[in-house]
């Protein structure tokens, strides 16, 4: 793949190469539309392709999947996610639709360690493993293997995130400096990333955090993390390093380590960040003209980007092992049954407040219907709004099926109507 990518990249001018280093990469007309346009931004923490329509969605958050303590089941779940993502890609590609959330690069799993939620808040519910480095690393490897498959052509390309020591205070993430001892960094925050890079056949990409680490190097512009740790210490990681979305502008707006967008883009590229989710790399051409970055740095990043595109196959309409996947493989009954099994097994009783054992002769109310019932919006962390997301809740006597869609965000939805018709326990009840 490397030689093929190198051949293509050598035909590109500097502006053309730079255009391929943003998440919304355009086609290159001068080369006959090859490569075609591609949007790198897609998610898949606990369900594939849900942002682009119907899809199977697994328990309400990734951390619920971690509570399974079952790498084999998580591998099966990731296989479903990659199957549905590849099927959707095939369908959208037939329509020449290469928009956001429709590609094969899945920015999952989130393997940050999440501790002290009441104090930090944030989106730690998106993590696999919560506070346990070992569990997180085992689940990460299984999930990556399920996403990427075992063929020479990747089924989808996994990206682990967010390196490193993320899941701090959410409101301050764009300026936060995580101060972590060397011991805690190596024993707590890095093991899962190391396993992702060295095992699982090698994860395709790593995404950096918004925050800085130990004194001011922003994680998306950190030669210590990217060059020294990933590419040298851990045995020569060959994949992409991706910025979190609009993290590079934080260099000058919030971290204050650069003065403007040109310097921020140059710092990121020089540090080894290949792909920019956001728009800061639009200033790389000016940075190149001013001598902030070299032709070789631009070419190296572009070649890494195209290594992934060639590993995914299909860029030149060549056949792949996944071309038969289509509509029948999306939100299928088989996938729904796996989601139901995962939902049942993910339940954790955090506190027994006179719930168990159930009292005899006393009716336990699971859901109460009214014409207007406030419900909590689900923070899906990358697998949100779909056309059809049934969530099945079962008790020993009956099943309540709640038909509806989830909504993006982690706030509480007030006075959101839930009609009586949405609740159905069967037999007209």
Distinctive features:
429 residues, alpha/beta, TIM Barrel, four-stranded parallel sheet, globular
Outline the structure in words:
By secondary structure, the chain is α/β, with parallel strands linked by helices. The protein has 14 helices and twelve strands. The strands form four sheets. It has a four-stranded parallel sheet, sandwiched between helices. The model is unreliable at 364-414 (pLDDT under 50).
How much strand? 5-15%
- Terminal Cα separation, in Å? 59 Å
Could you name the CATH class? Alpha Beta
Task: Name the overall outline.
Answer: globular
CATH topology annotation: TIM Barrel
Radius of gyration, Cα only, in angstroms? 22 Å
Write out the strand line-up for the largest beta sheet, numbering strands in chain order.
3-4-6-9
Assembly type: single chain
- The level of helicity is 25-40%
List low-pLDDT spans: 364-414
The count of domains is: 1
* Class by SSE composition: alpha/beta
CATH architecture: Alpha-Beta Barrel
Write the CATH homologous superfamily.
Answer: Glycoside hydrolase, family 3, N-terminal domain
Largest sheet: 4 strands, parallel
Order of helices and strands: HHEEHHEHHEEHHEEEHEHHHHHEEE
**Helix segment tally:** 14
Average of per-residue pLDDT values: 84
How many beta strands in the DSSP annotation?
Answer: 12
Brief digest:
The protein has 429 residues and is α/β, with parallel strands linked by helices. The chain is 33% helix and 8% strand.
